[in-house]
Amino acid sequence: MAKQPKTSAELEDMILQKLLIGGAYVSVRPDPIYGWQATVITAPKHAKGIQERADTIAAELRKKFTLKG
User: Fold this and answer.
1) How far apart are CA 25 and CA 61, in angstroms?
2) Nearest CA to 58 among 41, 37, 40, 42?
3) Are 4 and 30 in contact (CB under 8 A)?
4) Torsion 58-59-61-64 (CA) sign
5) Contact, 41 vs 52, CB < 8 A?
6) Per-residue pLDDT of the chain (69 residues; tens, 9 = 90+)
7) pTM
């Protein structure tokens, strides 16, 4: 099955919905190895844990979606 193309804004929204946390922002950008990568921007106290969760979510979403150019 072919992966469905999504814009960076669509992927960012999908990740934020799955994170279930307020006060965080997600940025999706192209990545030469993975196809695309998500970066979380939040308060330093929570950054590591939230980034790890976002990485897990992004890995799941990469199985279904590619980043639309």
Assistant:
1) 17
2) 37
3) no
4) positive
5) no
6) 789 999 999 999 999 999 988 888 999 999 999 999 999 988 777 677 889 999 999 999 999 999 997
7) 0.82
